[in-house]
Specification:
Radius of gyration of chain B: 13 Å
Number of strands of chain B: 9
Largest sheet of chain A: 7 strands, mixed
Distance between the termini of chain B: 37 Å
Helix content of chain A: under 10%
Structural class of chain B: mainly beta
Strand content of chain A: over 45%
Shape of chain A: globular
Helix content of chain B: under 10%
Oligomer: heterodimer
Number of helices of chain B: 0
Shape of chain B: globular
Distance between the termini of chain A: 33 Å
Radius of gyration of chain A: 13 Å
Number of helices of chain A: 0
Chain lengths: ~110, ~110
């Protein structure tokens, strides 16, 4: 297993469901990120973790709850989502949390909220 | 992070060279210029990064003039598989927020 993996690749959920997205990086990096990409829109940074500590929460609604148990794993817990939350959710990692550090992205989870 | 401006879209044909120019008039002294590529329904992929003059790797070249207020990503002899969105980002080591913007959609035709 190499790079950044994300599971599941596709998820359909109702507004009352609770689900979790998982990201795992096999690169030995210290920083991990969650991004949201809605149709025809730029990527939006949601959360940043550096050395397992959250360093950024970009005004994300509380129905999205991140968890970083160690430097290799990142979760995004979802509950009571809205249809407008349907999007591609991307995880990324980098050696450090600077723009000059290359971010390696996973394939994403395509989320549909009914 | 410095604001960047790039064309919304560009069309090309296989075998041609594609040049995408990004404007970043308020680039700071410590800022680097980084380009990413994104295919549909995939995460972005790092292409190249530079500070000044010219940088070349196996995928692309990056030209940065002396005033650093713009940069040009050059993709030599493109193929259909180079059809993607290309993002120009500017920032320094202290910035962890990648601001992708709308990017440039490059469409390569046969």
């Amino acid at each position: 297993e190499t790079g950044v993996t994300q599971t599941p690749r596709h998820l359909v959920m109702g507004m009352t469901n609770k689900k979790s997205l998982k990201c795992e990086q096999h690169l030995g990096h210290n920083a991990m990120y969650w991004y949201k990409q809605s149709a025809k829109k730029p990527l939006e940074l949601m959360f940043v973790y550096s050395l397992e500590e959250r360093v950024e929460n970009n005004s994300v609604p509380s129905r999205f709850s991140p968890e970083c148990p160690n430097s290799s794993h990142l979760f995004l817990h979802l509950h009571t989502l809205q249809p407008e939350d349907s999007a591609l959710y991307l995880c990324a990692s980098s050696q450090a949390s600077g723009v000059t550090d290359t971010q390696y992205f996973g394939p994403g989870t395509r989320l549909t909220v009914l | 992070l410095a604001k960047t401006t790039q064309p919304i879209s560009m069309d090309s044909y296989e075998g041609q060279e594609v040049n995408i120019t990004c404007s970043h008039n308020n680039i700071a002294t410590n800022d680097y210029i980084t380009w990413y590529q994104q295919f549909p329904s995939q995460g972005p992929r790092f292409i190249i990064q530079g500070y000044k003059t010219k940088v070349t790797n196996e995928v692309a070249s990056l030209f940065i003039p002396a005033d650093r207020k713009s940069s040009t990503l050059s993709l030599p002899r493109v193929s259909l598989s180079d059809t993607a969105v290309y993002y120009c980002l500017v920032g320094d080591r202290g910035d962890y927020k990648l601001s992708f913007g709308a990017g440039t959609t490059v469409t390569v035709r046969a």
